[in-house]
Batch of 2 targets.
Target 1
Amino acid sequence: MPHRSTRILSGLLACALAAGSAAGCAAPPACPLPAPVPSAPGLDSHNARNALDWDGLYVGASPEDTLTLFPDGRYVMSGARAVLPPAGAFDWDPSGSRILLPAGDRPAAVFFVGEGFVRQICPQTDPGAEPVYRKAGVAPGHPPPGTP
């Protein structure tokens, strides 16, 4: 007869596997977006969209994982992490700090835009990981900053 702790661990493992397989079949939850906040007099209204040089080429953990953002609202994505359509148009959320990339019949992928990086914040593609893409250059066909 198996030891009691072995039976408990076996039961926990079976429950975890069942929950994991059920969760794997479910559609990913929609990403909550912040409600627009009205500007008050004297408050700084700068955000990523209007204050950062956000357009350009971003590279993920692997050099093959790239995301290029163009100033006209288009993107191109490639590499193993590219679970979205490889090219398309993106939208800004009301805060101006996040971009929304369409994901076909699934909720849009949400990326936080920071100084020199973009981070996928929703939906999570890997448990416990937020894919980060670091800025590596300007978008093709776009002049470098400071060029007349």
Target 2
Amino acid sequence: MTCCSTTCRKWTSFGFSLGFLVSGFLLIFGWKSLFDTITNYELSLRSGTFQYKAWLDPPVDIYMDLFPFNWTNVDEFRKSKVWVKPRLEETGPYTFSIRLSRDNVKFNDNGTVSYNTIRTYHFVPERSNGSMDDILTVLDPVQMTIASVLKDKHYLIQRGTHYFLRRFNLTLDLSTTIRQLSFEGVRHPAMDFAERLRLMKGYDIPYDKFGWFYTRNGSASFEGDYTSWTGEGDIRKAGIIDEWNHSKHSSSYTGECSRVDGSSGDVFHPVNDDPTFSLFQADFCGKVTLERNGSDTVDDIEGNLYISTDKMFDNGTKYPERACFNPPGVTVENGLRNLTLCQYHAPAFISLPHFYLGDASLREAIDGMHPDPDKHKMYFLLEPTLGVPLKAHIVFQANMKLYSVSPIDSFKSVQNTTIPMMWIRVNSGMPDNYGSLIKLSFVAPTIGVCIGYSFVVLSLFLCGCGVMLEIKMRKGEHSYYNYVTNLFSKGSFSVTPLTAADVMSNDNNSV
């Protein structure tokens, strides 16, 4: 006895055929759309998604290399009564690991998320060329800030400042450790003096020490309040900053330059064939824009290459639309961006390292500048369909402007010069397990469609099996009918009535 009759097998074949046929057409015509929907959901910055988890706990190690400039001809500068060109020597790198975390995360009803970013820094001696206790000599940033503020003040205020600086035997050079210049901070008498005499009235400086990264380490408030798009409804907006410090415009710039925009640098969006890529930087109170420059590959994955060009820090001469990055009435050399209004009126300027792509006069004013495109070019390599950063090389140089202020003797003979203080390099790459995931995302839509076609073929095969079983059943019934008919028609099978004698004979035989 068989476990399933021919009829059962027939309808089972037809049932599975229909199921595979429907599944096949769904995969062929709907799988790519479904896959894209799932991918976009996981790439959006929503609670529980792949992107959200990576944003809260980044899977890649981030390291910052610090290259301070040491002032090597300070003795010659002190002795001379005329201007002596500063000679600077690059030191380092001093390497720090960066751990990112988020605070005050709040999802908003308009598809944005508000948060604060916390960066925790740890010195990594095994990756560094020096220790945190190395002594560095720099032009005094605090005095340069005072000179910048006082350059347009009344003569009596300028002269009074001169006597203060002389009383404390302050000179233009400052020698201290990397530890103090970076995170610990330097307690400077000029800062107390400026505060007491209200020399900086109207310029509120929220620090009691000077340090390049003073109060930054582990602070949730240092970078300000971010609001960025989650990508819900439009994945192309994922990670784009919508507001910074509760405003869509930065007060440090004017016009289009003031608009808060660009990637947060922590969440990236698909760039497709975009000709530019913008990165918002709280330290600059605005964004920087890189230009598309072909493609490159990492681990056989092709990405769009975006690099820094002369347009990034143009002063408006070559690219008039960049002029709005300058404060009203102020013009700077090509290759610089004025951060005075962003950095509490300190004469701060940003550039690429060693004034790469900057005006030649910037390099000629300083000894020790050696721009190298391989080292000092900034770039991002982004996979276009997912926006995953395959490789990034982020570099910036922090500079301060030295101004001549005649009533202050220490600033009397100086020339207006942009002084490099340090440059920073942050390298990052694709996490090890991301390569296989990216490659899988490339072939998954094709695999789904191929499976769909396989299901259709299997459906046709099963349908054919059902048809064959139906034919077999019909042939079987027809043959049985013919067999019975033949028995009657050929006399091979006949019915003879029984007589009484036959019955009696049968009974006697049985007894």
